[in-house]
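Each record in this resource describes a single protein on a pair of labelled lines. The shape at a given residue is found from the number at the same position. The record below illustrates this layout:

***
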Amino acid sequence: KQWYQRRVRASALRKWDSVTPFLKQAHFLPIKERIEFKIGLTTFKCLNNMAPQYLSDCIKMKSQPIKALRGDQDYFLLDVPPVPNLARTERALRFCAPRVWNCLPYELRTCNNVYSFKKNLKTHLFIK
């Protein structure tokens, strides 16, 4: 039903009208944010054992130092592996997931429900 309503609103656009206001009104994320949404959701599922094992094996939690400083109290960060000098390697989940995950606010990273995570992540990416 929602897709039909969006299609009807989209058909009201003329050929040369800008589609950006329509996409904002329909709550569609821009492409860059949509990619970050998918990577963040996949990372969340990997960390909460909702993803296949082969994906979960790509993501490692950051190891905690023996002598923790006050700034090291965030236990929900991912370990960022060094990126080799190969073309397009940074696009692999192993390398892009920690980058996206570590940039999320602490409240999002500590969420334990997939539905509230998706809602809050989309809201975060809209206002970003």
Notes: Residues 31-47 form the longest helix (17 residues).
